[in-house]
Amino acid sequence: MSTQELLKVAKKHSNTSFTEAEFQISNLVNKRPSFAKLDMSKPNIMGVINITPDSFYKNSQIDNLNKLKKYVYKMINNGASIIDIGGESSRPGAEKISSAEELNRVIDPIKYLKNCKEDFLISLDSRNLSTMKTCYKIGVDIFNDITAFKMRNKIEFISKTNMPIIIMHMQNEPINMQINPKYSFAPIDIYNFFSKKIKDLTEAGVKKSNIVVDPGIGFGKTLSDNLNIFKYLPLFHCLGVPILIGASRKSLIGELTMKDYKFRGKIKKDISPSKRLSGSLAFAIYANMCGVQILRTHDVFETNQALICQKYLHL
Amino acid sequence: MAFVKKTRYLLAPPYCRSAKTFISPILCSPSEALDGLRLAGGWRCFKNLRVIQKKKII
Predict the structure, then answer these.
(1) Sheet strands (E) in chain A
(2) ipTM over 0.85
(3) Do A2 and B47 touch (CB under 8 A)?
(4) How many CB atoms are closer than 10 A to CB A183?
(5) A105 in active site
(6) What's this model's pTM, rounded to 2 decimal places?
(7) Catalytic one among A105, A250, A259, A264?
(8) Is A276 assigned a catalytic role?
(9) Tens digits of residue pLDDT in A182-226
């Protein structure tokens, strides 16, 4: 159905329907303001740094400042405009750690990154308010919260500091999120979640231009939920804010590969995160074709190269 | 839940009281949709929409 047809039928029904249809279409079309000074009319790459001993992808685990320096320099040089740094693993089954422990892990790396001369933004991947408060003082640029700023005091802090935020959708907590996740239809349920969340945040004083949504691939979702989110990814543009997608090295890639092996009657025990690069790139390219503004990845060079090739193919 | 391709297949008028309406743009490159709309002022374009309707329980 064309946009004109939709407007025509809506107008025929009522003025309210027409206004809503117009509003939804304008949400799709309106240029997004810059987010944390980043241009949202082009794709941006966010590199993942885990200062954790237990993140699901071992190669992303950083345990000393020398390794961090090398990693970050490479990521920025290869095309990352944001470095997302986290001190707590949120892999399925991960137990919550204390905010003191988390802070202890991230504080020196963030201080180091803050003193780097390269041009990039620091995003703090944390769900703890106390960690956010301390890192705000050091000068992080973005807060990325897997709980979508569920607590009232976090929203108040964000509203007061005017910080750019990434809100992610997750069903339950990392420790139990993959135990029988249920949706009526994941893309619509998550869309409704974001719609309400953006309304709550803006009513509390958070600027809409400071919000990015992340549907949370692999966070309390089955394989079919994850695939449906991808299939209906452009739907989230109706929210009127930029979208972030992180499918890098995630288990859905392993599951899909195993499915293929099974279909061909072959036996394959597991596809570990280290063997999920090609699948990650396929999802990154697809997300880019869906107009997703921020791609979160462990493999900045490879993702950037894939995007460059795609751009010149005019896909 | 219904996925609507043509106007005549709509469950109910868009954005009416009896059904929730969601729209998802069908995206393409700017070269494929010269008279299309630009998505969020970015690098993708669209002319058509996929309409999803869900009956409201009143």
Answers:
(1) 44-50, 80-86, 121-125, 142-145, 165-168, 211-214, 244-245, 294-297
(2) yes
(3) yes
(4) 17
(5) no
(6) 0.94
(7) A250
(8) no
(9) 999 999 999 999 999 999 999 999 999 999 999 999 999 999 999
